[in-house]
Design goal:
InterPro entries: DPS_DNA-bd, DPS_DNA-bd_CS, Ferritin-like, Ferritin-like_SF, Ferritin_DPS_dom
CATH architecture: Up-down Bundle
GO molecular function, one term: oxidoreductase activity, acting on metal ions
Enzyme class: oxidoreductase
Number of helices: 5
CATH superfamily: Ferritin, core subunit, four-helix bundle
Strand content: under 5%
Pfam families: Ferritin
Largest sheet: none
CATH class: Mainly Alpha
Number of domains: 1
Distance between the termini: 58 Å
Family: Belongs to the Dps family.
């Protein structure tokens, strides 16, 4: 590949890409959990949750592509295996099929974890004056914060 000259130092590009790899891994793991729950949800809220989870995993599928492409834009290879994602992700795998309420709780925690990962990457991108990565990460944070809020609201009594 030819040299990259986009106004961001090589070491900064690498550091940002490393953070984006963690964001990609968290997002992909959350995508898989959400898709799994879409397939396996049962109970009184089946239709609502089945459709909601489908909406969420479709949005995550687009997000992981955008994150991976940003990593490539920075000149770094994007991870793309289950093994790599498992090593990079802060989101834990789920065994078995949880109840619908547990699914909502697990996904809420997953979205909150993505926000925390994004927040750590955002600081690195801002410090390197990488507005493109900062914008991408900021947009992801906003989406995951909103999704976590909506999922939490589903579990409130009242």
């Amino acid at each position: 590949m030819t040299s990259i000259n986009i106004g961001i130092q090589k070491q900064d590009r690498i550091e940002i890409a490393e953070g984006l790899k963690r964001l990609l891994a968290d997002s992909y793991t959350l995508y898989l959990q959400t898709h799994n729950f879409h397939w396996n949800v049962t109970g009184k809220q089946f239709r609502e949750l089945h459709l909601l989870f489908e909406e969420h995993y479709n949005a995550l599928a687009l997000a992981v592509d955008e994150i991976a492409e940003r990593i490539r834009t920075l000149g770094v290879a994007a991870p793309g295996t289950y093994k790599a994602f498992a090593e990079l992700s802060a989101i834990e795998e789920v065994e078995g099929v949880p109840s619908a309420d547990e699914m909502v709780d697990i996904l809420t925690k997953g979205h909150e974890q993505v926000v925390r990962t994004a927040r750590s990457v955002l600081k690195v991108a801002q410090d390197a004056d990488d507005e493109s990565s900062a914008s991408l990460v900021s947009d992801r944070m906003r989406e995951h914060e909103k999704t976590a809020w909506m999922l939490r609201a589903m579990r409130e009594n009242g």
